[in-house]
């Protein structure tokens, strides 16, 4: 729950009180213009978070000046969940990359094996069946010559029929051996061509598998890089929930405490730059006696013996329609005492007499 600070209430009371006292007086004897004003910071900012969450740590209190530490940190459930999802996604993509690299390794092995098989198929020869055919043909010719001799002897009744039949059987057997050798050679040629075709097909498929595996690895690597970026961004978003402020600025209000929940845009701190000006609100009828550059002196009640120089810096062009006053800002110059926001100040301007 948002806390109403006593300090803020005191400030509001002082503003209302001194706004009512800001009137100009003219001393005819000395031609001195007097006014009452308030010490105000030149620059004031509100510090809030862009997200909703729980305030985990507050490093400063009212009155502290901002240094190196962040003002406060806030835990966002959505940012933490985003980081967890990014971490999970990174793990999944890294696992996928590892799997795709293993597939690529297997694809390279498969291609090398297919290359060896193709080389073997291309290098396969028909030397053995060709030699067998050549040998069977030589044996056939030998049997042919022998059978012709037996035929001549049988025709002259110089050879028994049984011996002639045996010779004819050997000749026919040699013919059959030639036919079988020719068939085995033809079959070997067909087998060799089929093996070559299968080896070429396997090699082409292995090349395609390797190309697909390489593309898959490349895609997985891109996915990992993207997941790494997403994780880094999620970490930065979580770290960005440590809210910092400009060094040297001073804290004047604190609206929340540690452990409380805030919504996006809610102010946690009000900070000021420790440079001050004086605000006076004279009646608009006194405007003719005041102009930018008019010099004067001021003193605050806390240091009545330490006056300091002021100069009219700017005059707000808008008049308060309800009170008929306007805001005039005085720049503080030279040495000055330790000032605090919303101190009461008495100002004197010495006017040139006629």
UniProtKB/TrEMBL annotation:
**What are its GO cellular component terms?**
cell envelope
Q: Coiled-coil stretches, from where to where?
A: 76-244
UniProt keyword list? Coiled coil
Under the heading Pfam families, the entry gives: Beta-barrel_RND_2
Which InterPro entries does this entry report, sorted A to Z? Beta-barrel_RND_2, UPF0194_transport
User: Which residues are listed as membrane-spanning?
Assistant: none
The answer to whether keyword Coiled coil applies is: yes
Q: Where in the cell is it found?
A: Cell envelope
Q: What is this protein called?
A: Efflux RND transporter periplasmic adaptor subunit
Which organism is this protein's natural source? Halonatronomonas betaini
């Amino acid at each position: 729950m948002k806390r109403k600070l006593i300090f803020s209430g005191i400030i509001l009371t002082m503003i209302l009180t001194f706004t009512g006292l800001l009137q100009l007086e003219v001393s005819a004897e000395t031609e001195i213009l007097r006014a009452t004003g308030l010490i105000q910071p030149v620059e004031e900012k509100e510090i809030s978070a862009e997200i909703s969450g729980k305030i985990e740590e507050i490093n400063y209190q009212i009155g502290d000046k901002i240094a190196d530490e962040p003002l406060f940190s806030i835990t966002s459930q959505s940012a933490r969940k985003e980081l967890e999802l990014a971490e999970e996604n990174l793990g999944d993509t890294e696992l996928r990359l590892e799997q795709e690299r293993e597939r690529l390794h297997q694809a390279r092995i498969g291609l090398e094996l297919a290359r060896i098989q193709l080389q073997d198929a291309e290098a396969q020869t028909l030397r053995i069946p060709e030699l067998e055919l050549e040998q069977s043909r030589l044996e056939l010719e030998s049997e042919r010559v022998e059978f012709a001799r037996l035929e001549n002897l049988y025709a002259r009744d110089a050879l028994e029929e049984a011996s002639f039949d045996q010779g004819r059987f050997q000749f026919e057997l040699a013919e059959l051996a030639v036919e079988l050798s020719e068939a085995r050679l033809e079959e070997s040629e067909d087998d060799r061509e089929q093996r070559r075709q299968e080896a070429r097909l396997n090699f082409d498929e292995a090349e395609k598998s390797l190309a697909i595996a390489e593309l898959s690895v490349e895609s997985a690597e891109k996915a990992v890089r993207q997941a790494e970026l997403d994780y880094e961004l999620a970490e930065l978003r979580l770290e960005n929930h440590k809210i910092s402020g400009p060094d040297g600025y001073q804290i004047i209000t604190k609206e929340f405490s540690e452990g409380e929940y805030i919504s996006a845009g809610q102010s946690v701190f009000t900070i000021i730059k420790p440079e001050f000006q004086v605000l006076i609100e004279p009646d608009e009828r006194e405007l003719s006696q005041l102009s930018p550059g008019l010099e004067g002196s001021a003193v605050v009640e806390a240091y009545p013996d330490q006056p300091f120089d002021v100069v009219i810096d700017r005059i707000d062009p808008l008049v308060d329609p309800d009170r008929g006053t306007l805001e005039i800002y005085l720049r503080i110059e030279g040495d000055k005492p330790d000032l605090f926001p919303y101190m009461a100040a008495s100002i004197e301007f010495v006017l040139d007499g006629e």
